[in-house]
Design goal:
By secondary structure, the protein is of the alpha+beta class. It is 40% helix and 23% strand.
């Protein structure tokens, strides 16, 4: 079993620590403040929000399959709408730092050193998600599927009234039809790149607003 993953943040004289333990089909997330447990949860999905009451709320973004947590964010009562609302919407908050030498720390450093490559990689993953189903459908045509005889059942036909209502059928121009046909393949890639770029900007803003003591702890 892999060792627990730890994230830390010193804020307003209090030390917040989040420990993430992989239990196979689910992950156990424990939030401690100054060594005392605040909240915990066991989840199998990619997002966990812990309600710490007066301590605020902790938002944990987990990977879909394997790997370190994507980010861990502390939300306080001063966040818009309150701590829990901010944590559920992902707005505001202060990021915790992963333990030095961990895979999460290596991932954070790589994103900061290669922001454009990070955005392009996210777009590439989205493009692969669009192309892969199309390839599978194309290859399925060449698979010799076995023929299974199915019973034929004759059902009585019911006479239905023939109602014809003339409706306008506007025909968009050719260029617009071509754009709409390809939009379903392009927008997931553009959306993934935009989300990744927004995450890079968010991390830079976090670095600028972080306390000097927190920066020192990271280094």
């Amino acid at each position: 079993m892999a060792p627990p993953e730890r994230w830390r943040l010193e804020r307003d004289g209090r030390l917040h620590e989040v420990e993430i333990t992989d239990r196979g089909l689910r992950r156990v997330v424990v939030w401690r403040r100054d060594g005392e447990e605040v909240a915990r949860a066991a989840r199998s999905d990619g997002r966990v929000v812990l309600d710490g009451g007066g301590a605020g709320a902790m938002e944990v973004r987990l990977p879909v399959f394997v790997g370190p947590a994507r980010r861990v964010t502390l939300h306080g009562a001063s966040d818009p709408g309150g701590a829990m609302t901010a944590a559920r919407t992902g707005m505001g908050g202060v990021d915790l730092r992963p333990e030095a030498g961990s895979r999460a720390a290596d991932r954070e450093r790589w994103i900061r050193e290669h922001p454009r490559l990070y955005a392009w990689r996210a777009a590439g993953v989205a493009a692969a998600g669009v192309v892969a189903p199309l390839l599978l459908v194309a290859l399925a045509r060449y698979v010799p599927w076995p023929g299974i005889p199915l019973p034929s059942v004759d059902l009585p036909s019911l006479p239905l009234p023939d109602v014809s209502i003339p409706l306008p059928r506007p025909r968009p121009p050719q260029w617009l039809r071509e754009v709409l046909d390809k939009a379903g393949y392009v927008w997931p890639v553009l959306l993934a790149a935009a989300v990744a770029y927004g995450e890079v900007r968010r991390r830079r803003a976090q670095d600028r607003s972080r306390d000097p003591s927190d920066r020192g702890a990271e280094d």
